[in-house]
């Protein structure tokens, strides 16, 4: 199964994270399929940069985000776009 999760980068005591698409059997910092953005929790306010189109595409393909990534993607507005796409597909099927 393909997951969307965080991989840790940065120095000791100064983490930042990449949001990546990875096979769930891989290590946390192992090889990944694609990078979707990054998250820096140390900055005030935190920095969140997500390629929304790529994230939507992977979610529609069936990639499961981890709970933390799900919260971050919700803040970035990814799930609103996913819902809109699903609604338009249902409307097209009904007509």
SS-derived structural category: alpha+beta
Largest sheet, order of strands side by side?
Answer: 4-3-2-1-5
The average pLDDT is: 93
What proportion of the residues is helical, as a percent range? 25-40%
CATH topology title: S16 Ribosomal Protein, Chain: A
How many angstroms does the end-to-end distance come to?
Answer: 33 Å
The shape is flat
Order of SSEs: EEEEHEHH
The overall number of domains is: 1
The CATH H-level homologous superfamily:
Ribosomal protein S16
How many beta strands in the DSSP annotation?
5
What's the number of helices?
3
CATH architecture: 2-Layer Sandwich
Family: Belongs to the bacterial ribosomal protein bS16 family.
GO molecular function: structural constituent of ribosome
Protein name: Small ribosomal subunit protein bS16
Pfam family, one: Ribosomal_S16
Key words describing this protein structure:
95 residues; alpha+beta; S16 Ribosomal Protein, Chain: A; five-stranded mixed beta sheet; Ribosomal_bS16; Ribosomal_bS16_CS; ribosomal protein; ribonucleoprotein; Ribosomal_bS16_dom_sf
């Amino acid at each position: 199964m393909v997951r969307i999760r965080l991989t840790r980068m940065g120095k000791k005591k100064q983490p930042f994270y990449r949001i990546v698409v990875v096979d769930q059997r891989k290590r946390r910092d192992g090889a990944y399929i694609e990078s979707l953005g990054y998250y820096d929790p140390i900055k005030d306010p935190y920095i969140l940069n997500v390629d929304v189109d790529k994230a939507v595409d992977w979610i529609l393909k069936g990639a499961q985000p981890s709970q933390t990534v799900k919260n971050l993607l919700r803040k970035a507005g990814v799930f609103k776009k996913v819902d809109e796409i699903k609604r338009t597909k249902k409307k097209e099927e009904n007509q």
